[in-house]
Amino acid sequence: AAPAGTPDSLSFPPGFLWGCATASYQIEGAAREDGRGPSVWDVFSHTPGRVANGDTGDVACDSYHRYPEDIALLKALGVKAYRFSIAWPRIFPEGRGKPNQKGVDYYNRLIDGLLAAGIEPHATLFHWDLPAALPGGWQNRDTSYAFADYAGYMAGRLSDRMKHFMTVNELLCFTDLGYLTGGKAPGLKLLQKDANQVRHHGVLAHGLGVQAIRANAKAGTLVGLAENPSIYVPAIETPEHIEAAKKAMRDQNAMFLTAIMEGRYLDSYLSAQGSDAPVVKAGDMAAIGSPLDFLSINVYTGKMVRADPASPTGYAVLPMTGEAPRMPSRWLYVTPEVIYWGLRAIHELWKPKALYISENGCSADDKVSADGKVYDTDRVMYLRNYVTHLQRAAREGLPIRGYFLWSLMDNFEWEDGYTKLFGIHHVDFKTQKRTPKLSADWYRELIRVNRLV
Ligand code: GBH
């Protein structure tokens, strides 16, 4: 094999940004400390029947106290960057008003620690822990403005030391899944019309957030978001199927990513919603379409599409068969090619200046061996496959700059509690001991050689 760093068909570009990702409510714990206000996830997880086993994020990985140890884990992996999220209710316990300095101090300590370890901080401003005090949550348009104020404030406080800010994480998950199907906080099942308004407030929060960050942050600050578009893979790699999958990407993401990248809702989306279409005020779409410095996507799974001349859309989305391979999370079909086709369609449709994978990873059926180690061979297989398709994207010259593995360590997996674990470090939730899994050893080597291993 060629020595590490030699450009060949297996290498990643020099300086490729390998990282790990986490989110505040999933790892921090310290839910009532230093003036943090309750979030909708505190309320939801403490409501009987909402989360597996009644698990909560009260303690989680206790990263609020153990962050130096977590920085040491990152350093031992050799990652160049760490994506974490900021808990809005630590900064504004009631969502707005007077900032809580103790909350800001925590992120100052974290960021200073990362910089001292030579690791680039990438912050998500909202990864679902909405302050519970905000009346009506995302049903209320005022929440979008409250988010922008908070985002601008934080970027103003942190941009002297870090560049990369993501407004929100995964619009679908905190809008539809919180307000339409109700599996996530706040657990509501609203009518489609009301849920469409929640979606609009979500993209509006992102857009107003971009504007507020630019108005308050130091010059040179880079703004994007971490979105999880529905991704469509051409069933067969022929021009007509490729075109069909690309059209599906644009159409099916009309309420979120397409609106953000194009600054408008597609006519096909609006007409399909009819009288349920959201109320849009003057200026909203311009804010939503604010130009971005980069686009990050969380990539886990996707569907296959074939060209279908008989359909008015020109394509047909194919159902997953019952025997399709899945990881333990019921939704996590193994579809490694989504990483390449997702990036390629986005690049061809909208040409973002820079692309990142802000999350990729999987739950696995982890067992601690007699030697204390987790040999998560299935996770290694999963990651190796996805990263192979990532390398294709890089090799073909797509502007892909980095990859954040979800997740640094086992953590609170939302409605699945601690029953589905995504870490490349095992966490013993009784002792809080972190232990690298086989996948951590694999990732360390990938980063070291910067080519497929
Ligand atoms: C990400 O979501 C999150 O950003 C992260 O916090 C999370 O821990 C990680 O992935 C692993 O789940 O059964 O119909 O309710 C991943 C994307 C999309 C996965 C919605 C779960 C629920 C489908 N998610 N999906 S449903």
Automatic annotation (TrEMBL):
GO biological process assignments: cellulose catabolic process
Pfam (any one): Glyco_hydro_1
PROSITE patterns assigned: GLYCOSYL_HYDROL_F1_2, TAT
Cellular component terms (Gene Ontology): cytosol
InterPro entries for this protein: GH, GH_1_N_CS, Glyco_hydro_1, Glyco_hydro_1_beta-glucosidase, TAT_signal
TM stretches of this protein: none
EC identifiers of the protein: 3.2.1.21
Keywords, sorted A to Z: Carbohydrate metabolism, Cellulose degradation, Glycosidase, Hydrolase, Polysaccharide degradation, Signal
Catalytic activity: Hydrolysis of terminal, non-reducing beta-D-glucosyl residues with release of beta-D-glucose
SUPFAM superfamilies per UniProt: (Trans)glycosidases
Gene Ontology MF annotations: beta-glucosidase activity
Active site residues according to the UniProt entry: E170 (proton donor), E359 (nucleophile)
Binding site for substrate: Q26, H127, N169, Y300, W406, E413, W414
Matching Gene3D superfamilies: Glycosidases
Family statement: Belongs to the glycosyl hydrolase 1 family.
Protein name (Swiss-Prot/TrEMBL): Beta-glucosidase
Biological source species: Sphingobium amiense
